[in-house]
Every structure is written in C-alpha cells, then in structure tokens.
DNA sequence: AGCAAAATTTATCATAAGATAAATAATCAG
DNA sequence: CTGATTATTTATCTTATGATAAATTTTGCT
C-alpha cells in the first residue's frame, strides 16, 4: 500500500482514517504477461494502481486491434468511459509484462465519497489530471505527424521501446505497423 | 440562473444554500459575435455557461489557427488544461455569435468546494462527463477518416453548419479547409 | 445597392501513410 | 536446441490529404 499512498499524496494527502478506509476496499492482483486484467464487454468496477508491470487499454475497430494507451509503474489505469457512465466497456486492459497491481473497488470507493469528502477530492484531482492529459493527446494526434508523435512518445517514455512491442505502439500512434517501421527505418 | 440550475440538476441536484452560494459567484456576460471571451496567455479563472450563442476554443500551431472544440447553448465551456493546472493557457475562447453567458469565478468556486461537498461533487461529475467525451474524441480522430468525422459531426450537431463557418469546422476535424470542401463536394 | 473583404470551392501537383505481400529476425514451446 | 510461431522490416503500388493558386460565392460595410 505504501506506493499507493505516496501516489495519493501527490494529489491530496489523506487522513489516517481515510487511508484505512481505502485500504479496506483494495486487493492485490498478480497477473501474468499478456493476460487480460479486464475484458471487453464488462463494466469497469475496479480502478487499478500498477506496482509493477506495464498495462495497455485496447479495443477493436473493424477487426483490427487498437491500443488506446499505456500505463507504467506508479500510475492508475481504468476504462473511464465505463467507470463514469456505468456502461459496459468495449475495451480491455491487458498487462504486457508479469505484473503486480492493487485493485480498488470502484462502487465501494464511490460510497466512501459520501463519508470522506477528502477521498472524493483526491480522485477528483487524479481524474482532472488524467483529463488534461487526454486533452493534450487530442492535440498531439490531430496536429503532429506520425514521426513527431513517435519522437514525442520516446521522449516521454524512453523505456517504452524496451517494454512494449512495436505493434502496440503503432496503433497507439494511430498508424500501421508498417508505417511505424518505415519511420523508424529513416534513422 | 434558471437554465444553469436545470443544467446542474442533470448531474447533481443542489440544496437551496448551495445554489445561492453559487449564484453569488456568477455574473452575466454579454458579448458580440467574433469577440474573444478569454484570450491567449491568461490563466483560466472563469467557467462559462452558455445561455445563448456558440463558442469555440482555439489556439495556434505554426501560425495556423486550430479549433479545439465547439460549445452550444446549455453547455459549459472552459480551458480545462489551464483551469486544472493553474497555468496560463495557450488557447482562447471566442464567441461565434452574439452571445449571453454566465461566468462562474473558478477560484471562488474551488473555495466553495470546502464548505459544500455537494458542489464539489456536481463539478466532479460535470468534468467526468467532459473527460469521457474527450476520450471518445481521441478515438474518433485516431481511427476514422476525415469524411467519417465530418458525417459524425453533422449527426451529433446537425445545426453546426448553419452556425459555424466551415474554416473552423475544418481544423476541428483535423483537416484543411480545402480538404473539407473536397469532402463536402463529393455529394 | 454596390464595393471590398472574407469564405468557400475548384484545380493541379506533391507527399505521407495505407494495403498487400514477401523477406527477415526474434521469441517461445517442447 | 530446434522448429514453429510471431514480430518486424522491406518493397511496391495506391490513395487520401496537404500545399498552393486561382476562381467563385458570400458577407459585411457605408
């Protein structure tokens, strides 16, 4: 739990009782490489904190698998379009390496919001920051070339190449594997 | 204020006192067509509710003006990447028609969060919904053709063509004016 | 109304990325 | 370790969109 509390402190430091209340709705998850942590068609009821490993959210468009995002250690991952709407998700979360996570039960978390406004505030801030990242991602996809996006990704996550297969990176960048290979080949 | 309270009720119904507290930090804004409501370089300190008119957020990339989004009546608009980070915004908000808005002072709003958890919850839910929209927009930009995006926009906002110049729509769709004209010409 | 400015369309040519196929390299299971 | 599978690269050809320029239409001003 320590890593998670450190992560929380970046957004909103919680009281003892609030930390304890959250710890009671958390459970550890160990999962093997390439396994789905959450599968397509199910409604999101768990927010995950990554202690170890790499995650990606993916979905299918016209039979083709698309990677929506990656998440590394000490980050949170959830399919927000399901978490916030209560609708089943068309997306899945897969762990790219053998991983250790902490799962936070989201219906129970939302109940805690009533008793602990500080917890509601914490998650408000966490998701506000994620929202800002997504707004920036729209800009990046819309007005940078594939090559610019590739270079920006490397700068932001220098170890992504070591940990994530190129085929996943390609669809994340919005291009085909073949185009990514071409871009990489230039240098 | 009535429209605004109706809008709030879709997310979280507030007590009398909470509504009153919000009304005290609101002020009406009347603004002419093509005027900037908020300008580039300033930090966002107001969240706007549109009573009448159409707004867009825009910014510059390489001297070229880009429209990030549109907002119509009975919606909220803010440059969230500044609102949530406190940093100056590279973006501006412009009203495309003669408009009437309600401006909500955001620093004062955030103070109200301490006294009224219900207000914090209201805005949490408003921005969660906006976040989900943005996640969906990433998908739309990344994996639909320009023509598909154009048709999707028309379906979503059928009156956008009547109210918004095509040059703004083009950059919103991530294409040039000329390409948009070509797409429209096909039918 | 009538002119000027701005918006939109049309045309032409250039280019980045897609589709497909095939070759090579890396990884994994037994 | 080795063969089989999967991932990546390379090659060729096609296509959607960009860049630029010019023509046309619409809008706004006085």
* Count of individual helical segments of chain A: 9
The CATH architecture of the domain at 2-112 in chain A can be given as Sandwich
Percent strand of chain A equals: 15-25%
Q: Please report the total strand number of chain A as a whole number.
A: 8
Order of helices and strands of chain A: HHEEEEEEHEEHHHHHH
**Uncertain regions spanning at least 5 consecutive residues of chain A:** none
- How confident overall, as mean pLDDT of chain A? 95
Distance, first to last CA of chain A: 43 Å
**Helical residues, percent of chain A:** 40-55%
Please identify the top-level CATH class of the domain at 2-112 in chain A: Mainly Beta
Looking at how many chains there are and whether they match, the oligomeric state comes to homodimer
Gyration radius of chain A, in Å: 17 Å
Which topology of the domain at 2-112 in chain A does CATH recognise?
Answer: Jelly Rolls
Inertia-based shape of chain A = elongated
- Superfamily at the CATH H level of the domain at 2-112 in chain A? Jelly Rolls
Question: Most extensive interface: pair and counts?
Answer: A-B, 28 and 28 residues
Strand order of the largest sheet of chain A: 1-8-3-6
- Structural class based on helices, strands and sheet pairing of chain A: alpha+beta
Largest sheet of chain A: 4 strands, antiparallel
């Amino acid at each position: 739990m320590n890593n998670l509390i450190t992560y929380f402190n970046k957004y909103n430091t919680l009281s003892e009782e609030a930390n304890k209340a959250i710890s009671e709705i958390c459970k550890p998850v160990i999962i093997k490489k390439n396994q789905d942590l959450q599968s397509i068609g199910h409604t999101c009821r768990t927010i995950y904190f990554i202690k170890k490993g790499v995650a990606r959210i993916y979905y299918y468009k016209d039979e083709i698998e698309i990677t929506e995002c990656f998440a590394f250690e000490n980050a949170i991952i959830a399919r927000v379009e399901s978490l916030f709407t209560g609708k089943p998700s068309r997306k899945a979360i897969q762990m790219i390496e053998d991983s250790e996570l902490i799962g936070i039960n989201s219906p129970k978390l939302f109940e805690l919001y009533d008793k602990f406004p500080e917890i509601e505030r914490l998650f408000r801030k966490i998701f506000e920051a994620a929202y800002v990242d997504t707004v920036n991602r729209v800009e990046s996809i819309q007005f940078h070339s594939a090559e610019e996006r590739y270079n920006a990704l490397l700068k932001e996550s220098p170890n992504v190449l070591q940990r994530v297969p190129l085929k996943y990176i390609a669809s994340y960048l919005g291009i085909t594997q073949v185009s990514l290979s071409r871009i990489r080949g230039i240098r």
